[in-house]
Specification:
- The protein is of the alpha/beta class.
- The protein is built from 13 helices and 10 strands.
- The strands form 2 sheets. It has a 5-stranded parallel sheet, with helices on both faces.
- Helix 2 crosses helix 10, helix 8 crosses helix 11 and helix 11 crosses helix 12.
- It is globular.
- It starts with 14 loop residues before the first helix and ends in a 5-residue tail after the last strand.
Amino acid sequence: MLFRSLSDPFLLKDMREATEIIQDAIAGQKKICIYGDYDCDGITSTVILFSYLEYMGADVTYYIPERAEGYGMNKPSIQKLHDEGIELIITVDNGISAVSEAEFVAELGMELIITDHHQQGEVLPKAKAIVNPHRKDCTSPFKYLCGAGVVLKLITALEDGDYSATMEQYGELVAIATIADIVCLTGENRFIVDRGLKYLPNTERAGLRKLMEVSGIKPSEISSTKVAFGIAPRINASGRFASPRLAVQLLLSEDEEEAEELAIQLNKLNEERKETEQIIVEEIYRHIDSNPGLLHNRVLVFHGADWHHGVIGIVASRMVEKFGKPVFIITEEGETSRGSARSFGDFSVFECLEACGEFLTKYGGHKGAGGFSLDTDKIN
């Protein structure tokens, strides 16, 4: 069987419950909202599940918070969705840490399905189903899927476990997300990326074709490196410097002219991202020149005032490549600060954040990367 490298989606804890709830919602024409995230993984996850449910005849919409709202579900947005008549919320690439927000969803009388791939904390949120390979009680064999990988499993389960149709339809998007989200490219992820990259040169998505054009990528030259440095940053740029809805619209667009216009917009935003990123990098290098001894630390932490929170994750990745150590980058925004971290070797970002939890107001992530918030006076 062609897709034997991918394990049965029903091995994921709560998968059967999730599919039954979604099927009932489709049949009953309940209003469904996909609650996504503003990075490449969250955007592609939203597009995949929205496209699939719309095709299945569901009454479905999507919501992705702007970066200024912060990562994950928030109560004002949940209230807004309730006021719009939403009856079922399905999270993608977020939700495993949304304990109080899940309680609020229940209080408002809505149903909640969480699909996520980030590490769980001590308490699981209150939801009808939580599909996450990192659940401590989940016995699925492969743990390192990105958010879009979990969504692929969900829609495959809705297709009675048949990967052939779901991979052919959405494989290129899952591959892009897997590469972009810095998850381990082993096991099932390696298969997803290998297969998805084979679909990408002949994608039927006008937005992806136009995005490859503005990135200067020829279909014959597609590789994981081209995706990592050409396609993914431009998708990410929408959430970093404008609205993630731009990238969602691009990936959903069936109109060549609209797709070209949106791709050009994302390309310009990516150029802005590069300039902003370079300013932060230069400031870090000046700090190192003044304090060369800090490079002896086993984990590197850099912070500065009003560094653009949309690019500190990229800066962290660059510093990891430069110095070969885990890196935490923090931007001070008055009395509060936000941070982004990237791992090196066997270091787990999530376990580190968990160990420092008493100093943080919010955190989440997985082994390779994570984000957090804290009071500025707690940085030292």
